[in-house]
Design goal:
Protein name: ATP-dependent Clp protease adaptor ClpS
Pfam families: ClpS (PF02617)
GO molecular function, one term: peptidase activity
Number of helices: 3
Distance between the termini: 63 Å
Radius of gyration: 22 Å
Oligomer: single chain
Strand order of the largest sheet: 2-1-3
Keywords: Hydrolase, Protease
Length: 91
């Protein structure tokens, strides 16, 4: 005859609180694909391929998250996008 022991463990899970923000760029009828791509490369350190993909997503979906990070890093990048004439915000 065998004896089975039941054990119960109390596990504490620490939930990570997301402090990440996002820069979202919105579609407009003013800026060309080339201008958007060049601006994303300059302001967000995108590769040419990343910038092109984001510009297509913006065009077809109306918006795209182009950069994620801490607010202090995103603020000057968003300012560069706005100064270049793009519609963008930090969310």
């Amino acid at each position: 005859m065998s004896i089975k022991e039941k054990t119960s463990e109390e596990v504490l899970l620490e939930e990570a609180v997301s402090t990440q923000n996002e820069i979202v760029v919105y579609n407009d009828d003013v800026n060309t694909f080339d201008h958007v791509i060049e601006t994303l490369i300059y302001a967000c350190d995108h590769t040419a391929e990343q910038a092109e993909q984001c510009s297509l997503i913006v065009h077809y979906n109306g918006k795209c998250t182009v950069k994620t990070g801490d607010y202090d890093d995103l603020k000057p990048r968003c300012t560069m996008l706005l100064e270049a004439g793009l519609s963008a915000e930090i969310v």
